[in-house]
Structure formats: C-alpha cells, structure tokens
Amino acid sequence: MNNIPENFVWGVSTSSYQIEGSVETDGRGKTIWDTFCENPKNIIDQSSGAVACDHYQRYPEDILLIKDLGAKAYRFSTAWSRVQPEGFGKVNKAGIDFYKRLVDSLLENNIEPWLCLNHWDLPQGLENLGGWRSRDTAFRFAEYAEIIGKNLGDLVPNFITHNEPNVVALLGHGWGWHAPGMQSADAVMAVTHHLNLAHGLAVSRLRNTVPEAKLGTVITMQPVIDWENDPDGSARLDALSNRAFTDPALLGTYPDLISEEISDFVQEDDLRTIHQPLDFFGLNHYTTVRARSSQDTALGVKIIQPPLEIPQTVKGWEINPEMLYQQLLELKNRYGNLPIYITENGCAAPDKLDSAGRVSDPDRVAYFRDYLLAASRAIKGGVNLKGYFAWSLMDNFEWADGYTQRFGIVYVDFPTQKRIPKDSFYFLKKIFQNKT
Ligand code: FCB
Description:
TIM Barrel, 16 helices, about 425 residues
C-alpha cells in the first residue's frame, strides 16, 4: 500500500435505516422502507430495520469501535423522517438532537463526521404525494438540507447529498426490488431527473448555509462487462446506472442514450441547477455487472449472475479488483481530476462466530487487500484519490436481503446485540494505523 499519501482519509460507512432501529422513538416519521418491509414478499427473511443494530440507543459503544479501529472518519446518514416526520413542514427537535449527540461524540473521539442526507429512507409522507416521481420532492429535499445545515453545519465539515441515487431509480422504480417497489421505465426517468435536481438544489442551499463545508455526492459505479455480445443491453445499463447521475452532476448533460426518454421531465435551466461545482466525488464500488436485454422487465434490460467459474462473493457479486482500478482511471479521464473518495467498498461473507468467540473472515480480508492494492495503483496512476471508507462498520439490515448477508467488519449477534470485531477489523486497523 505504498502509494497512499500521509493525509489519506480512512473511514467506515453506515446508513440510518440499516442500523438505527427505534423506528417509533422520539417522533420519527414512517419511511418507504418501513412500509416496504410490511409486505412479507419484499424481504427475503421477512425482517425489517425496526430494531436493526439498535444503534439509536447504542451509538456510544459503536463510536468507540470506530475509534479503536483507528478510523479518522465516519460516514453516516441522517434519517429525513427523524428531522421532518412527514418530509415537509414541522421540524422535530428530538431527531436533530439525536444527530447532535452523535456528531458531538464523534468529535470528542477525534473522528470526522461525513453526513449523508439521503440513504434511501424517504419519508412516507412524501411518498404519499408521489415520492421522487414528483418534482416537488426535489424542493422539499433542499429545505431539509438547509435545516440540517443550519443545525449541524458548525460541527460537520463534509456533506453528501445522496447515496446511490441510481439504486433508488433502478432498483426502487425499475426492477422493483427496493422500496417503493415499482416497475416502470417512466418512473425511473422521472425519479432520475428529480433526484438530480434535488442534488443541485441542495448543494446551492448548503453553499449558502454552510459556506465552509465540503460538498459532494455518492454514486455507485459498477462497470458493465459485455459478456453475451449484447452491446445494446450493456450500453443501456451503463447509461442508466453509471452515467445518468454522474454526467449531469459533473458535466451538466444527460447521456445521449437516455436524453430523449428523460426530456419530458427536464425543464429549462434544470441542468444548470444540477451542475454545481463540487468539492469531491464519492464512489461506491463493489463489483462488475453483466447485462442482458430483456423485454420482460420494464427497463428493457436486466442484470444477470456471473457464471459459477468466476470468483464471486456469497451474494453472487463478482470479485474483480482490476475493474476498480479501471473505474478510477476512467473517472479521472472523463470528469477531470476532482478529489475522489471511495465511500463504500466491501463484501458479504459467510461469517460464523466460533466456539472461541472469534469471527474469522479470510474472504473479506482478501477482498479488502486486493481492492486496496487496486486503489493504491490508481493513485500511482495519477488518480486524485483522497480517502477510503469500508462498508460497513457492522453487520446490519441489508435491504431486500434482510439479515441474511453480513457486510460488517464487526459481527453483530442480533439476539443479544453483542458486537464482535472480525479478523477483517484487525486487518484494516493495521492499515488505518499505518502499521503495514
Ligand atoms: C450499497 C448500499 C449500502 C449497502 C451496500 C452493500 O449499494 O449503499 O447501503 O447495502 O450496497
């Protein structure tokens, strides 16, 4: 790891709905994920984030784990419905106070807060009015960003607008695997544009409210391999997933392949509003994907599983660190040398607590080692990579997979809520503390 600069930011990431629990505490409003989990068909183990890691109560213990890991930074998300239970109107002081306590405690422990405003848990009150399909939601998001800026801006140096808006659009509205569970190409276009607009509006509000803060967005980019000689399918998936958010935010344009489809939702000046100067780009990267054109999905394209002979995780995600290297170089070449942070990278593994009370996760250790080596090569290749956040601090509610996929570097025994650092925690600790 010898190309990593001195002031590199090492951190860990989590998100509100996946860890907090306490869904009815202190005036929190319902979100689309609470609703989605009510239908037993939506979540593989019929679970929900109602308790999750009970982080709302146990955050002091979790912050001590981050400190022990030697991480300089912690990326978390605020739940919009704790701050504004309906997503508009009334502000809930108790919700803001929770995030103030969290941030204070991070700062006391010398951990830099990285606050993300939207990690998918849209207030149900807004969904009832059309959710991200409605243009109004973008303006409500800007108001929420301003509330957070006003209340936490003096303590938080880094703000992120969205986490993976491309997943909200495609998985939530195209393939229907995530909340709110829709399958409509039209909805995907509306949601894509309104999330982009929300980003631009929120950035300009935050620039006024917290002029000193560093602002960015987080997009998941998984390179598409044209595996089945289906260049149209691959190009469509690439445009919808990898370009539909990066191009408008960083270049001020939509990719040609979707510009006509999305044009119904784009009003004059919108692209200028969306294309705001940013201080950093957050890249979430896990795998590579393979596309297949298919008329039985609303989007006309679907993702297919890698063949069994290809190295992959228990979740079926291909392990291919070379593609992270390629992805970073491509970002540099296409979008200029904006500072990049890898804001999520990690893998699910078949973790078991052994009789000695230890969790050995050699697959995850190997994954981190190989992906970090690829990142370090990219730095050598001139990529302006400034930091790396592992996903995730601890096992948590993995969306439609419920609790069946563990991504943590800390094992959570859910019945007792006991936290047990895995071998990968100690592996990263050495790297974070510059001891390898
Ligand atoms: C990302 C999400 C994160 C987590 C990981 C495994 O797409 O941002 O919440 O689910 O995948």
